[in-house]
C-alpha cells in the first residue's frame, strides 16, 4: 500500500487530495483544504465517487462529478483545480 | 432584522448558535439576524473541509488549552483570541438585497460594516480576494459563508489585539498559501488594530462594530428564541462538542 498526497493552491484556497493506493485502486480518499463548496456534503460525495476506482480513472470521474452537479457553488475554484491536486497526488 | 447582543461562550456553543439561527431562519421561525460574539476560552475554528492533522498544530493547541472546533462553513483555520477578537455573524435571506445573489458581492455587502469601522479609525481598509479584509495592506479580518435553501450564513473575525505569536504557533499555514500571497511568514501577512497603533478593549471594539452593523442594516435588538437555544444545545451535544465532527478529517 502506498499513501498519496497532492496539494494545489487555487485562486481561493488550498485543495489537498489524499488516498491509499492498493492494487492500483484508490482507497480512503480524503479531499481537504480551506476552499469553499456548498452544499458542503458534495465533498464527501466526490470522495465516495472516487473510492475503489483505478488511479487512471480518477481524473475522468472528477470531470463527470462536476459536469452533473449544476447546484454546486465553488467560488474562485473550478474543476481544473481539483484535477491539478489529483495529478500532484499521482506524481508522488 | 434582529440584533443579538454580545455572547461570550465556548466555541462549540458559538458554532451551534450560528447553525441554530440558520436552521430557524430556513424554517421561517426567526427574522434575518446579526450577532456579535467572543470566544472564551481562546479557541481555534477550522473550515468544514480542513484536515486537523495538516492545518492545526494540535499538540501546541492542547498544551495551551485551546480547543479546536470545526465550522459548518468552508475556508481556513482561525485563532479566536479571548481578549483580542470579536466575531460577527449574519444570517440573511438571499432576497434581502440584489448583491446577495452573487457570492463575491455578498461577502463585501455583509462584511461592509467592518470596513466602515476600520475607516472610521483612520485605517486604509478594503477587501482582498474573495473573503478577506485588509488594513494598511495586511489581513485583519476573514469571513466564511454557506448557503442553504436561499439563506446565507456568513461569519468572520475582527482582530483588535489578537496575540499573533500564539496564532502563528497554533495554526499551520501551508508554504504554498503564503508564497501565493507573496509573503514568507504569517507575520508579514496578518495584523491587528493594536499592531496598527490603535489600542482598544473588547467593549470598545464591540460598541464600534455594533454601531457600524446598526448603521448598515438597522436591526432591532432582540434575543435568541427558546427554539434556537434548544436546537443549539442539541447541536453542541451531537456535533460541535463531538470529536466525531471536529476530528472527522
TrEMBL record, chain A:
Query: Which UniProt key words apply to this protein?
Result: ATP-binding, Ligase, Nucleotide-binding
Which first-to-last residue range defines the signal peptide? none
Task: Identify the InterPro entries for this entry.
Answer: Lipoate_protein_ligase_C, Octanoyltrans_LipM/LipL
| Matching Gene3D superfamilies | CO dehydrogenase flavoprotein, C-terminal domain
> Any idea where the Lipoate protein ligase C-terminal domain is?
7-59
User: What is an example of a GO molecular function annotated in this UniProt entry?
Assistant: lipoate-protein ligase activity
Q: Which Pfam families match?
A: Lip_prot_lig_C (PF10437)
Q: Which reaction does it catalyse?
A: L-lysyl-[lipoyl-carrier protein] + (R)-lipoate + ATP = N(6)-[(R)-lipoyl]-L-lysyl-[lipoyl-carrier protein] + AMP + diphosphate + H(+)
Superkingdom of the source? Archaea
Q: What is its EC number?
A: 6.3.1.20
Q: In which pathway does it act?
A: Protein modification; protein lipoylation via exogenous pathway; protein N(6)-(lipoyl)lysine from lipoate: step 1/2; Protein modification; protein lipoylation via exogenous pathway; protein N(6)-(lipoyl)lysine from lipoate: step 2/2
Biological process, per Gene Ontology: protein lipoylation
Q: List, alphabetically, the PANTHER family matched.
A: OCTANOYL-[GCVH]:PROTEIN N-OCTANOYLTRANSFERASE, OCTANOYLTRANSFERASE LIPM-RELATED
**In its UniProt entry, what is this protein called?**
lipoate--protein ligase
Give the lineage.
Answer: Archaea, Methanobacteriati, Methanobacteriota, Thermococci, Thermococcales
TrEMBL record, chain B:
The record's annotation in Gene3D superfamilies points to: Bira Bifunctional Protein, Domain 2
Q: Name one GO molecular function term.
A: ligase activity
| CDD domains recorded | LplA
Enumerate the spans annotated as BPL/LPL catalytic domain: 28-221
Q: Which Pfam families match?
A: LplA-B_cat
UniProt KW Cell inner membrane keyword: no
Top-rank taxon of the source lineage equals Archaea
Leader sequence segment: none
- Keywords, sorted A to Z: Ligase
Q: What is this protein called?
A: Lipoate--protein ligase
Q: Which organism is it from?
A: Thermococcus celer Vu 13 = JCM 8558
